[in-house]
Amino acid sequence: MRAALLPILLAATASNASAQTKPDISLDTLKTVTQTLSSDAYEGRAPATPAEDKTVAYLIERFKAAGLKPANNGSWVQDVPLVEILATDVSPMTIAGGKAPVTLAYRQDMVIATYRVVPKIEVKDSPVVFVGYGINAPERGWNDYAGVDVKGKTVVILINDPDWQMPGKDGLFEGRAMTYYGRWTYKYEEAARQGAAAAIIVHDTEPAAYGWGVVQSSWTGPQLELDEKGDHLNESAAIGWVQLAKAQEIFAGAGKDFTALAAAAKQKGFKAVPLGVTASVSFANTIRRQASKNVIGILPGTTAPDDVVMYSAHWDHLGRCDAVNGDDICNGALDNASGTAALIALAEAHQKAGAAKRSLVFLAVTAEESGLLGSKYYAEHPVFPLARTVGGVNMDGVNIIGRTKDFVVVGAGKSELEDMIVPHVKAQGRVLVNEPTPERGYYFRSDHFSFAKLGVPMFYGESGEDLVEGGTAAGHAAAEDYVTNRYHKPQDEYADSWKWDGAIEDLTLFYGLGRELADGDRWPNWYKTAEFRAIRDASRAKLK
Question: Could you tell me the domains of the chain?
Answer without folding.
Answer: 3-67+300-541 (3.40.630.10), 85-287 (3.50.30.30)
